[in-house]
Amino acid sequence: MTPIVNERFNDEKSEHKEDVMVQILQLDVCGMPQEWITPEDAATYYATDSVAWTVGSVIHTLHGGTNAVTGLQSRIDVHAIVATTGASRFNLFDAVPSLSNPKLFMRDRMTCAYCGGQFDDRHLTREHIVPTALGGIDDWLNVVAACKACNGRKACRTPEDARMPLLFAPYAPSVFEGFLLAGRNIRGDVHDWLSSRVGSQSRWAQQSVKLSQYKYLQQDRSRLTV
Prior knowledge:
Blueprint: E1 10-11, E2 24-27, E3 33-37, H1 39-47, E4 51-66, E5 73-84, H2 101-107, E6 124-128, E7 143-147, H3 148-154, H4 159-162, H5 175-182, H6 188-195, H7 203-225
Parallel strand pairs: 2-5
Antiparallel strand pairs: 1-4, 2-3, 4-5, 6-7
């Protein structure tokens, strides 16, 4: 492969123009998610022969300089998911995604754990099941999304004391779900790849099962009407 590490690559201006802001999912060689990277970052792995395997279609193309010998311009096609060589930065069994309000709200599907209403992030709060004033910790297993009204009503009480039972249980997201929660502009194929690997307790997995059941029923009904 012609050395192109120091070349300046330009975005393809044709069929991939609309995907300039799309994030690339970087994995290690075992398929463990590492981070969301830009197409330009991904290009450096291709240029240094550090890409072990890829998943999905080519979603971005970058052009570099012209080879002085062949007269051909360097070209790198970037895939949606890129597995790279080198040491992994995460341990599948130890890594727990960092807790933040946006991730929490996404984990709970923008739904209040007490009234079941769906809200945008401006009207949701991080609600501690066991209040911190009573010794509760700021942890995935002790927090849920709650609308401002329910949060105010519950106040500094446990759900039992406030007579406000939880509609669903909290859980700590897996590494794969953590990347779903943190990603932006995630392509459908990358979303499906991550969703298929989340834990069974995840609401992402439960939603996927419901969609699969719905599609099966629709297909079954189609067969009956033929």
